[in-house]
Write a structure and sequence with these properties.
single chain; mainly beta; Immunoglobulin-like; 11 domains; six-stranded mixed β-sheet
């Protein structure tokens, strides 16, 4: 809501503005003129008798007027009274009271006369009256003894003062007595009680009278009231205490405030209603006060006359009173006479018209003398309320008084006739600047004077054309009005005044400004209590105007509170409270206009708690609760929650009872016997719950036998030979009386047995021993107390204790659906063998080994439970290409039965996971090297890899796709014949016989210049391979980088979050044996170089072999083997010594030549630098242990060969055992191999080779 104002702000303001200019058309003070009264005291002048009396009378004229006074109609000679002085150059009298004068001596009617050579003006009759505040007359006040419910009036009867005092009632502590519909103060000051209550008893009802003029307060003697209570209070229909009778009259003067009053007695307290017979109460001027006992109509007029009826009503009847109102009127002006300035020979009129009720009489005076006896003037003629002047001469100048009077008052107006001959004058300052807002009126002044009256003309610019037309308005006082000023209205305007004696002109300037606007107004806000809210007020204004912004709350200044933060274009209220509710207005003021916008802030909160709880209609099993709602805090109450407390059984604990809609404030509540109730009510609105009300009074119900039996009765055995009967104990309020107990009864179902019963107390279970295993029982539990039994309870079926099932499911079958899912079937067990509630079947299944790796692992068994009497189930999440076993067990409430025989099944191959990594290295002009890791989950036997790649241009468009098939045993590839300086995108995946797995992608770029090819900036460890046995694994790798690198091997359990374990490799060897591994466990491994942090190989995963059925012994560590080797070495040493001796004797020994000619290719010399065996030397192109067999075909060891002979460590012989868990290829480059791939091994250093190395 936005309002816009300019200056003048509206058409009404414009009219008033022009009227002010017209009435201010005064004769310049340098010209002769009759006196004009400018200031005087009020007609009815009540003065403080303790202070000096000042009677004002100011006037102007040329020459300056002299002053004289009359008192009570006779001349008042101030020179004869030393207490009275007249101010210099003024007619104001000062009567000195503070120096011993008495105000009462100067009571009377005073009138001032201002006179000069051109006439005399007179003031109103000023009635001087000293204010009075007389003391209260002493009176003997009797105590007021009154019966409860009767009416009472305490009379004040204040002393008569001038003016009348203000009356109010207080107690001895100077606290105002509370008033209500029942107790209120009348217009005459008396205190009225419609009916008295016991709380009205007190001895300090005191009436106070405050006299404003003297600033004194007087009090009446305290009045005592004693209310006599009776057992029964008689209700009474209304009776009017004031006014009395059925009718009365009231006279009020026009413009005053009409006050009508009706106060009634009665029980219950009557309510008051007002109507106007034959009409409506004026909507905008009518107000109700004093709890509607007083009707107030402001600014009354003759139209408000009529009959006003007040109606007092209660439940027993009604009474009414009619007040006949007559509105009279003291005289008021229709047309007051105005000053006349005439040139010699001109004509003119003075008009004096007034109205009133009754019609006022009009009389004229000339220079303060009744015109009938005033000196004659041939140029004037009196015609009732008009004086007509014809061909006036200079001697016709005078001051005329018009007096309009009736019985309720008078009006007196002075108007002079001034005869002058004067050329034009322009009184508006030259070049005056006017600034107005665009699209609003512009008023350009041309205040003038001249006699005869000059003619006024306006021109645009200095020498422009005369202004005419409908777009301009020319006022009699010379003002030029432009009703809607536009931007092009700005400029210079010239005013010309001329009469027969001359001509004069004046220029003024007009500027047009842009209007001030609020471009973002504050908006309606709803905020919760203690929140924060902001109102915006963003403005746009003329750049030459300086705006000021003020904020109002409910059209008043903002509270002086630091929570209100006024910003440049906003108002923020912190920590909002209920008092902040209201209308906020942003007002933007400039020197030319003002705009405003308002928005309402509604503060919502949880309701205030209900109050005044009352219990009525008490019965044994029900009661009525009523309450009064608290303030809903601007959010309607949606419902009330009723809670109760049982002070007898659970003191301090409140329970939910019921709830009712927010429009309901009474409820009928059901009660239980033997409960000490108290209630409270909680109000709920959209914001939340109120605080609980204060508790109601307590109400204790009588005892009775129980109404209900325990709930949730069950019979479940905890052991195979018992029955545990349980129930929910009754709560205290359910007991209905003292001595609560339970009668527990049971008998075996379907057996012709009698009921067995026991009575127990303070428990909620009973155990029956010696029962058969899992048989049904009929059970019932009945409540009883000292007053009797509850109704007969219903029976429930329970069972004695369960025992473990006796048999396992049979005919277990497995149907493999795909590589990860299988379906298992079984035959249900006979229900008699379950010996309990059949809960379902459990399937235990576990992986035996991977068909790809041919190794066994210790894997935890997985369990799937199938509820109910199901005979099949699905096994999800299986690993492809694996061997599994399972068994099935039946389950009851006691536990699991025996397992069925293990059932084996295998899953087929699946597609592999993506390769573990893809790295692209060694970029050249036309080639890239690709390295990859095998899939973490091959899910079968890998058959090949598929590489797809295609170039990418600068706009990220893809070129033709090239596809390459790569054998499964490869781990790197050099791509040649590529384009130089080209980006390629690669797609890589693995295949099994089932299909292709998910792919991994990578991008790389060939280089632009061969000269830019550099060696790797960091070492590179690649082709990490593992050969695993039961408790150890041989790790080997390839290395590119600086010489003499110190390697280390890190390893850990695959899938574990434990830290990596680290082993240092001695020397610069490219292999290492990890020992102390756990059989049948998957490990992760990686290789790094010391001093080159962050440069490690990619991770590899291997799995140790399963535990041996019998422990394998390392032959190289056996004592007998070591002794044999020592003996052989000693024998060789002896032979060497013999040969040396023989050679020294000169004989030739041909062994050396023969050895050189027929050297065994398997015997290698020992390296000088590190002492390692020949088969691990760098002479073999720095290769690690080779994948694939190096054993001659004629030396293959069969499966039937001995598994405990030295052939395990024989030269070139592959040591292996069959699938019963014995050792297979401990140094094999592959983790697992199918038998069809042949027997593979990598040679490890054996004792035989070691021996040959020394020969």
């Amino acid at each position: 809501m936005m309002k816009k104002m300019s200056i003048p702000t509206s058409k009404t303001s414009l009219v008033l503005f022009l009227c002010q200019i017209i009435s201010a058309l005064d004769v310049p003070l340098d010209l002769s003129q009759p006196p004009t009264i400018t200031q005087q005291s009020p007609k009815d002048y009540i003065v403080d008798p303790r202070e000096n009396i000042v009677i004002q009378c100011e006037a102007k004229g040329k020459p300056p007027p002299s002053f004289s006074w009359t008192r009570n109609g006779t001349h008042f000679d101030i020179d004869k009274d030393s207490q009275v002085t007249m101010k210099p150059n003024s007619g104001t009298l000062v009567i000195n009271i503070m120096n011993g004068g008495k105000a009462e001596a100067y009571e009377g009617v005073y009138q001032c006369t201002a006179r000069n050579e051109r006439g005399a003006a007179i003031s109103n009759n000023i009635v001087i009256r000293p204010s009075r505040s007389p003391l209260w007359t002493k009176e003997k006040l009797e105590p007021n003894d009154v019966r409860e419910g009767d009416s009472l009036v305490l009379h004040c009867r204040p002393p008569v003062g001038l003016p009348p005092p203000i009356i109010f009632w207080m107690d001895n502590a100077f606290q105002r007595l509370p008033q209500s519909e029942r107790v209120s103060q009348g217009l005459n000051g008396d205190l009225y009680f419609s009916n008295v209550q016991p709380e009205d008893t007190r001895e300090d009802y005191i009436c106070y009278a405050r006299f404003n003029h003297t600033q004194t307060i007087q009090q009446k003697q305290p009045i005592s009231v004693k209310v006599i209570s009776t057992k029964s209070v008689t209700e009474r229909q209304p009776v009017l205490l004031t006014p009395t009778g059925s009718t009365s009259t009231k006279v009020e003067l026009r413009g005053n405030v009409l006050l009508l009053e009706c106060i009634a007695a009665g029980l219950p307290t009557p309510t008051i209603r007002w109507i106007k017979e034959g009409g409506e109460l004026p909507a905008n001027r009518t107000f109700f006060e004093n709890f509607k006992k007083t009707l107030k109509i402001i600014d009354v007029s003759e139209a408000d006359s009529g009959n006003y009826k007040c109606i007092a009503r209660n439940a027993l009847g009604s009474v009414h009173h009619v007040i006949s109102v007559t509105v009279k009127a003291a005289p008021y002006w229709i047309t007051a006479p105005r000053n006349l300035v005439l040139s010699p020979g001109e004509d003119g009129t003075l008009i004096c018209r007034a109205n009133g009720n009754p019609k006022p009489s009009i009389s004229w005076l000339a220079n303060g003398v009744p015109i009938a006896i005033a000196p004659e003037d041939p140029s004037r003629k009196v015609d009732g309320d008009t004086i007509i002047f014809s061909h006036v001469q200079e001697r016709s100048s005078a001051v005329y008084q018009c007096n309009a009077s009736n019985e309720y008052g008078y009006l007196l107006a002075n108007a002079f006739v001034n005869v002058l001959a004067e050329p034009p004058r322009i009184l508006t300052p030259a070049n005056k600047l006017y600034q107005v807002i665009a699209d609003s009126p512009a008023l350009l002044d041309c205040a003038y004077f001249g006699s005869p009256k000059p003619e006024i003309e306006w021109f645009r610019g200095v020498k422009g054309s005369i202004l005419r037309g409908n777009e301009y308005v020319f006022h009699d006082n010379g003002t030029l009005e432009i009703p809607v000023a536009q931007k092009d209205s700005a400029g210079t305007y010239t005013c010309v005044a001329r009469n027969e004696l001359g001509k004069v002109q004046n220029e003024v300037q007009l500027e047009i400004k842009d209007p001030t606007m609020i471009i973002k107004q504050p908006e309606y806000k709803v905020i919760q209590r203690y929140g924060q809210v902001s109102f915006e007020c963003i403005i746009k204004h003329d750049s030459t105007l300086l705006p000021t912004v003020i904020w109002l709350k409910d059209n008043d200044e903002l509270p002086d509170d630091e929570r209100f933060l006024v910003g440049k274009d906003n108002l923020t209220i912190m920590n909002v409270t209920d008092k902040d509710d209201g209308t906020y207005t942003c007002i933007v003021n400039t020197t030319l206009d003002s705009v405003s916008a308002s928005a309402v802030l509604t503060v919502v909160a949880r309701p205030n708690p209900p109050f005044d709880l009352e219990l009525t209609g008490q019965l044994e099993r029900s009661i009525e609760l009523s309450w009064l709602p608290g303030d809903e805090n601007n959010s309607p109450i949606t419902n009330f929650i009723i809670e109760y407390e049982d002070a007898l059984h659970e003191p301090g604990v409140w329970h939910y009872q019921t709830e009712v809609p927010g429009t309901q404030t009474t409820v009928q509540l059901k009660l239980s016997p033997y409960v000490n109730y108290s209630f409270r009510v909680i109000a709920v609105n959209k914001i939340g719950r109120s605080q609980p009300s204060e508790p109601s009074e307590q109400y204790l119900t009588k005892s009775a036998s129980p109404d209900e039996n325990p709930a949730n009765v069950q019979g479940i055995g905890s052991e195979p030979d018992n029955l545990v009967i349980t129930w929910e104990s009754l709560k205290g309020f359910q007991s209905n009386g003292p001595g609560l107990q339970y009668k527990v009864s049971w008998r075996q179902k379907d057996v012709d047995d009698e009921w067995t019963s026991v009575i127990v107390a303070n428990v909620s279970k009973y155990i029956v021993s010696g029962t058969p295993t899992f048989v049904p029982y009929e059970i019932k539990v009945q409540a009883l107390n000292d007053l009797g039994y509850a109704p007969e309870p219903s029976e429930v079926i329970g069972h004695s204790g369960e025992d473990l099932p006796m048999v396992a499911p049979g005919n277990v079958q497995v149907h493999v659906i795909n590589s990860t899912l299988a379906k298992v079937h079984w035959d249900p067990v006979p229900l008699k063998t379950v010996r309990g509630h059949l809960q379902g079947y459990k399937v235990y299944y576990w992986k035996v080994q991977s068909l790809f790796r041919r190794s066994r692992r210790h894997v935890e068994k997985k369990i799937l439970t199938f509820r109910g009497n199901k005979t099949f189930g699905m096994l999800p999440g299986l690993e492809p290409f694996s061997s599994y076993k399972l068994n099935v067990r039946v389950v009851n409430g006691k536990g699991e039965g025996p397992a069925s025989p293990d059932k084996a099944f295998k899953t087929p191959e699946g597609v592999p996971s993506s390769p573990s990594f893809l790295k692209i290295t060694n970029p050249t002009l036309d080639s890239l090297t690709l390295e990859w890791g095998s899939p973490t989950h091959p899910n079968g036997v890998l058959t090949s890899y598929t590489l797809k790649f295609q170039p990418i241009n600068n706009t990220h468009e893809l070129g033709p796709l090239v596809e390459i098939r790569i054998p499964a045993n490869e781990s790197s590839l050099i791509l040649k014949n590529l384009n130089y300086s080209t980006r390629y995108k690669f797609y890589f995946n693995a295949q099994t016989s089932v299909g292709s797995g998910s792919q991994i992608t990578e991008e790389a770029v060939t280089i632009m210049d061969e000269g830019k090819m550099v060696q790797p900036l960091y070492p590179r460890i690649r082709n990490v391979t593992t050969a695993a046995a039961e408790t150890y694994a041989n790790i080997s790798w390839e290395y590119e980088g600086p010489d003499h690198a110190n390697f280390y091997v890190e390893y850990g359990v695959a899938g574990s979050k434990e830290d990596w374990k680290k082993e240092i490799v001695n020397g610069s060897r490219s292999f290492f044996v990890l020992k102390g591994l756990t059989p049948g466990t998957a490990y992760k491994v990686r290789v790094g170089a010391e001093g080159l942090s962050g440069f490690r190989s990619s991770e590899d995963v291997f799995e140790t072999g399963p535990a041996m059925a019998s422990r394998q012994v390392d032959i190289a560590t056996q004592g007998w083997f070591i002794g044999l080797m020592c003996a052989v070495a000693l024998l060789i040493l002896i032979l060497l010594i013999v040969c040396f001796i023989r050679r020294n004797k000169g004989g030739k020994y041909p062994v050396k030549e023969k050895e050189d000619a027929h050297a065994d290719p398997e015997i290698q010399p020992m390296k000088e630098d590190d002492g390692t065996f020949g088969e691990y030397s760098d002479a073999e192109d720095h290769k690690p242990l080779k994948k694939g067999s190096r054993t001659p075909s004629d030396r293959t060891v069969k499966k039937e060969d001995s598994d405990d002979s030295l052939v395990d460590y024989g030269e070139g012989v592959n040591g292996q055992f069959n699938e019963d868990g014995s050792f297979i290829g401990q140094y094999s480059g592959k983790k697992e191999k199918e038998p069809a791939e042949g027997n593979e091994s990598s040679e490890a250093p054996s004792p035989v080779n070691a021996m040959n190395s020394f020969v």
